[in-house]
Amino acid sequence: MSPAALLSLIRNAVRILSVVAVACTLHLYLYPFFRGCAFPLPPAPSNASDANSSALADHPAPFRLLALGDPQLEGDTSLRNYGRPNFLHLEWAIRHLTFKTEQPSLRKRLRQVTHDLVDVFFDDIPDTLETYRKHIDLFGNDFYLAHIYRTLRWWTKPTHVSVLGDLLGSQWIRDREFNRRSKRFWNRSFRGAERIPDEVAQYPAEDYNVSGILGREDSEAELWQRRLINVVGNHDIGYAGDITPELLDRFERAFGKAAYELRFELPIDDPVTNATMFDPENNPSSDRLPPELRILNINNMNLDTPALNQSLQDYTYKFINAIISTSTAVEFKGHYTLVLTHMPLYKPEGLCVDAPFFDFHEGGGVKEQNQLSADASKGFLEGIYGLSGDVNAAAAGAGRRGVILNGHDHEGCDTYHYINQSLPNDERKWQVARWDNARNDELPGKPGLPGIREITVRSMMADFGGHAGFLSVWFDQESWEWKHEFSVCALGRQYYWWFVHIYDLILLIVLVAYGVLEISIISGFNAEEWLQTRLLALSKPKSEAQKADGKTNGHATKR
What we know:
Layout: H1 3-29, H2 31-34, H3 50-57, E1 63-68, H4 88-97, H5 106-156, E2 160-164, H6 175-189, E3 194-195, E4 212-213, H7 219-226, E5 227-231, H8 234-237, H9 245-255, E6 260-265, H10 271-274, E7 288-297, H11 310-325, E8 333-340, E9 358-360, E10 366-369, H12 374-384, E11 401-406, E12 413-419, E13 430-434, H13 435-440, E14 451-456, E15 467-476, E16 481-490, H14 494-522, H15 527-558
Parallel strand pairs: 1-2, 2-5, 3-5, 4-6, 7-8, 8-11, 11-14
Antiparallel strand pairs: 1-15, 6-7, 9-10, 12-13, 12-14, 15-16
């Protein structure tokens, strides 16, 4: 084939490949646009005029949380050949053959060599290939997760970002492996993100510092957009029967405190509206407080018993008691409580993929659990949110406004916890319904049925489609209450991410080859003549060698 014909063939191939590459690459890097990934928008106020209702409806919520569940970064411990050479059986075969091992007889030595050589083909080679494949998979997975975080953060513009536990894939890894995975987390998967400083992550108190102001676009808002609210999970520190001070300390050094609160205020600029707020001197009868959003990052991994370390469990309960004692009275409006944690609350079997499950170590201690126990969940609902089945309780048992976000159940789940106050005391207990069913039945906000929504965010791991959650929270001045909406979005399995990048790499190689060939033709370089010259030069030494052999043979014959 002439160079011109080859150039024409490559040119046509590049045209076809380029169209497909551009389409796939744009779809991958603009997937939030094509898949409709966005934060829910607040509805326009009912008293808004037709002229500005459209503008108000397009105004984003002042608090927008990008919620990412269970990335679970794996590492060397997931490799098939972890802790041993790639060709272990081949090394042993060589040791046997070189008499570096003790064997009772030559027959048994040769027999062992044969066994090891067979294992090379059935164990060493498959395990080594799988190890290299896993290395590539881990490398790609880091950037797959990075693609989700980076693209969604760029496109949807969240005000805050949270990773809801299980940042790493195992609590049993040693410190060296933990540090390697932590560096991959910050330098690859969440590159550009920052750990929340310890002085910002504060313990619940009556006198507290405001963590930030919502609804503003300034340097402080940009800072919170970069920070990660990292929740601790079972694969980070273990369950209650596994947690030690050492495991907890190394997590907090790398990813931030495991338990703290953040408080954000939303300023009201209208002086007339501000005058309606509670003031002990000027307006003591008002139930309106300045709008405030309280984020509680709670380590609920050791709420259930028995626990390995009692002091750590005592600290968790002390922390929750501090939350309760510093919460505003349920009779007031204007405050909103967002709980971020890892372990979901108790639900009966059938509502979510993960059913209630507990397993314990032989010596005691929680070894594994899918959900919190019913008692621990009840404490969450009645303590932190002040919900009550007693109609005579404060605020008729309605409790505080808020929502619970967690992970752990990789499939995700969206539920509503409520209690029916009309039932007799001995029959009154917490019930759970799927959120869609609860909303269709108009359970949220119904008198006599206090409750709260719990959202378990589906995992962002590739096996679960690379999901992400979008929580919008805004303040309704008419009702003087915070409201929220939640949506989800998925990138898809990792195969598409791999396909696009490999395809683009192949196209790049073809483009380079095309460019080299075209430049050579323009410069007058004759590739065909050059190739023939090279082949002739390679064949000359063979011809001369054959002649030399012939002469040598001839002389020998004459002798």
